[in-house]
């Protein structure tokens, strides 16, 4: 069953975000979209944010609302590939795509749509009618699909996390929203962003607006995921506050326990500042593939939990 026109409009900004070419290191197109979006939409928001950006923040963006107690981090980058020599590709982050996947980008000769191939040693290559400029970045060609229950598209990780942050901004009175860079390829921006926020407003709490996995213990349609741990282990007393808020407000949620995977929260934990953090995000099937899929009920519960948590923390 196809989605109604009304529902399609509901996720129009999410589709626009997914269509932006912005692998790690090339986040500026997302930042530019956000600045234009905020300029247009902030008149409808409960609180007008202070917009903080500039060379000292590279391509990152900070929105400060009222008197913040908690920061929300949403990374802007995606996985993809960098063109090496001849027809060779080097991974950006951890892309997971089959041979024949359509890749897009642009170099000095114009727009590119090529195919992903692998050699006998499983090295990634591109198939195209000419040689592509070395250093060109390639990402999955977007096929945004919506049904009654699901959204499916490349790069829901983490354009859905950004979408969630923008929905939260509509009703936010006090808080900080941080749009970070490089998360998929090892990070690097969060330490200086967290330092600025900590020194400027003494903000010691953080929520990670990102997307996690459907697994043997986490399923579609059962609610937003509150992560007890991944590769990193957040402070349990802080995570229990989030669980208590979800329970009190009767918001569907699932608890996650994983031994691998990381996020901007890992950078906060490894940093020198006493910042509590918790990963809170919708689960998806097909992470880092061209076919990432998220249940709409999990998106709804993610947005709802962020809205109440930012009021109550």
Largest sheet: 8 strands, mixed
Helix/strand order: HHHEEEEEEEEEEEHEHEEEHEHEEEH
* Unreliable residue stretches: none
CATH homologous superfamily assignment of the largest domain: Zn peptidases
Our Rg estimate from Cα atoms comes to 19 Å
Terminal CA distance reads 39 Å
The name CATH uses for the topology of the largest domain is Aminopeptidase
Number of helices: 8
Residues in helix, %: 25-40%
Task: Walk across the major sheet and give the strand order.
Answer: 1-2-12-3-13-17-15-16
Task: Return the domain count.
Answer: 2
Q: In the CATH classification, which architecture of the largest domain applies?
A: 3-Layer(aba) Sandwich
* Average pLDDT metric: 96
**Number of beta-strand segments:** 19
Using the coordinates above, name the CATH class of the largest domain: Alpha Beta
Q: Your description of this structure?
A:
It is a single chain. The protein is built from 8 helices and 19 strands. With 313 residues, the protein is α+β, with helices and mostly antiparallel strands. It has 2 domains: 244 residues, 3-Layer(aba) Sandwich (Aminopeptidase), CATH 3.40.630.10; 61 residues, Beta Barrel (Elongation Factor Tu (Ef-tu), domain 3). The strands form 3 sheets. The chain has an 8-stranded mixed beta sheet, sandwiched between helices. The chain has a 6-stranded antiparallel beta sheet with strand order 5-4-9-6-7-8, with no helix packed on it. Strands 10-11-19-18-14 form a 5-stranded mixed beta sheet. Strand 15, helix 6 and strand 16 form a beta-alpha-beta unit. Helix 2 packs across helix 4 and helix 4 packs across helix 8. The radius of gyration is 19 Å and the shape is globular.
